[in-house]
Write a structure and sequence with these properties.
The protein contains two helices and 49 strands. The protein is mostly beta strands and 557 residues long. The chain has a five-stranded antiparallel β-sheet with strand order 1-30-31-32-33, with no helix packed on it. It has a four-stranded antiparallel β-sheet with strand order 2-3-4-5, with no helix packed on it. A four-stranded antiparallel β-sheet has the order 6-7-8-9, with no helix packed on it. A hairpin with a 5-residue loop joins strand 42 and strand 43. It starts with a strand and ends in a 5-residue tail after the last strand.
Length: 557
């Protein structure tokens, strides 16, 4: 009997309504998997809202213990990338990102689009209001936006003296500043944003990129800047409306920082570097800062924090959420997950035993983890590490399997005890980047991807290199119809999707170009004659003659 295999690329074509009808239950992660870029409190309530990649909006009314997911707010698709959220009162708030600006008037329950940025990948990163009516949106490489009707409409305003604004902050209704490029200048307004003046940076602010601004009141504010020549991050404070600034904390590992305050005394800053993340807190209005320990936060690149009374929350990469109920001194993990990256291959041998290959993010080193479940996916344990973010695996039965990856040649690991121990075989002279492994039985199998095809007839102990067409480098999937009749699918630049067939167990191949389809990613036969190929962009091809000819089917999306 052949192992049962889950074909994720076919599953992506299933609509959300069908998904719900099939009654799938989320196992991991909770509450969701997308990276979160910002979190803010709704004034006058216990509600906190986090926003992030893939049109993600999370809402909690229960101090971060439970979260409600808002799918595709404002009708935006999953290409929306939200970078900022703010509220100007208890009901009116805004989300900005690469698609433009969304607005809510019911505390975040519903959202509608008030400015469209088209299909740009460059987001508006910051929004600030001088008063309830007049506000501005800025972002790296973007023109400034201005509203005078509480955010119902936004219009472009011309850049000033070739200044590219990154951050904007108002001290009061009249006075505000923008930081950006060139780094030795800032923009300042003293009339609520009617006009802006380009001035030199005030005393104490270094001539380097300021990536975070926060004003506690009309006089006291904070800035974070990183000196790229020394790689040192500086936390600066002003007590005179930004006229002069003093360094109150620095760290050679500070790379990026973000502030928030619960009141005029209790504050937090979260800073990231390539290999660690640091949390510092203050209880004296920012005059002194103390580093805190947050278990599990390391190596995740960026985080943002917000206060809700004495509770403080940190969100970041891959949907991580941390919570403290003592102003940031001690922390607990709110989200949960087994996998820390995309799951790009999965195989189940029966109702209980399954395997999954996922990318591991963190620590600045690319790797993948091979994981095993013995209870139908409820829990997973790591059984092997691939020293790259690309690889493939296959299990012939519950005991015998292999995984492989390219690192100075093709590395193949074999196990005969379900992954408890592994034996390594290295072919340094074979330059294959594997994407798929399949076996017909315990003896006959193939490895394919970018490069040649490898074939074994002795269960993986020895492998034969099969030359492959260099014009068709990318093989995505393998299907054994019999031990001799085998199909592979893939994609090549300038050709599109292709399928190749072998009638001698993979020693020779006949290639057929399927046409200008995007990526023939997966192939499955349902019987002797009927087969399907899943392509990217919701295309499915069907064969009713055993794979000799293919026609596009209709997909109801």
């Amino acid at each position: 009997m052949k192992p049962k295999v889950i074909y994720f690329l076919l599953f992506t074509l299933i609509s959300l309504s069908l998904f719900s009808q099939l009654n799938f239950t989320r196992i991991t992660p909770f509450p969701q998997e997308n990276s979160l870029n910002y979190i803010a409190k709704v004034p006058g309530s216990n509600r906190i809202i986090a926003v992030g990649k893939r049109s993600t909006v999370l809402i909690s009314d229960y101090y971060g213990n439970y979260w409600d997911i808002k799918y595709n707010p404002g009708g935006l698709d999953n290409n929306a990338y939200f970078t900022y959220i703010c509220f100007i009162d208890s009901s009116t708030g805004f989300i900005s990102g690469n698609k433009g600006v969304l607005k809510t008037v019911d505390s975040g329950d519903t959202w509608y689009e008030v400015f469209s940025n088209g299909n740009s990948w460059y987001p508006y990163d910051d929004i600030a209001f001088a008063n309830q009516s007049t506000g501005f949106a800025v972002g790296v490489g973007k023109s400034m936006l201005k509203t005078t009707d509480a955010g119902e409409t936004w219009e472009y305003i011309d850049s000033i003296a070739d200044f590219n604004p990154y951050q904007i902050e108002f001290f009061d209704e009249l006075t505000g500043i923008m930081t950006g490029s060139p780094v030795d200048k800032i923009l300042k307004t003293t009339n609520g944003g009617v006009t802006w003046e380009l001035i030199d940076k005030p005393q104490g602010l270094p001539d380097s990129y300021i990536n975070s601004l926060y004003f506690l009141n009309e006089t006291t504010g904070f800035a974070f800047t990183n000196n790229q020549s020394s790689s040192t991050g500086y936390l600066l404070r002003t007590a005179d409306t930004g006229i002069t600034w003093d360094t109150v904390y620095s760290n050679p590992e500070f790379y990026y920082g973000h502030f928030d305050f619960s009141n005029e005394m209790q504050g937090i800053m979260v800073s990231s570097s390539f290999y660690s993340d640091i949390v510092v807190t203050t209880s004296d209005g920012g005059e002194t800062w103390t580093e805190q320990t947050v278990p599990g936060i390391e190596g995740m690149w960026y985080y943002y924090a917000c206060y809700n009374d004495n509770n403080v929350y940190i969100v970041g990469l891959l949907g991580k959420i941390f919570k403290s109920d003592d102003y940031g001194v001690t922390w607990e993990r709110v989200d949960s997950r087994f996998f820390y990256g995309d799951i790009y291959q999965m195989q189940f041998l029966n109702n209980n035993r399954g395997f999954a290959l996922s990318i591991n993010y963190g620590g600045g080193v690319a790797s993948s983890g091979l994981n095993r479940t013995d209870n139908g996916g409820e829990n997973w344990n790591n059984i092997g590490t691939l020293l790259t973010d690309k690889g493939a695996f296959w299990f012939v039965n519950e005991s015998k399997g292999l995984f492989c990856y390219n690192l100075i040649g093709i590395n193949i690991y074999l196990t005969n005890d379900g992954g408890q121990t592994w034996n390594n075989i290295v072919y340094q002279n074979i330059d294959l980047y594997p994407a798929v492994v399949k076996f017909w039985d315990e003896s006959n199998g193939l490895i394919a991807g970018e490069g040649p095809i490898l074939r074994t007839t002795d269960g993986g102990e020895n492998w034969q290199e099969i030359p492959w067409n260099n014009n068709l480098p990318g093989i995505s999937d393998i299907w054994y119809k019999t031990v001799n009749e085998v199909f592979v699918t893939g994609e090549a630049v300038g050709i599109g999707a292709f399928i190749a067939k072998s009638v001698d167990g993979g020693q020779t191949w006949e290639i057929d170009e399927l046409g200008n389809y995007s990526g023939a990613s997966s192939i499955v036969f349902t019987n002797e004659n009927t087969a399907f190929i899943a392509c990217r962009n919701t295309t499915i091809l069907k064969s009713t003659d055993g794979g000799d000819t293919w026609e596009q089917t209709t997909v109801n999306t």
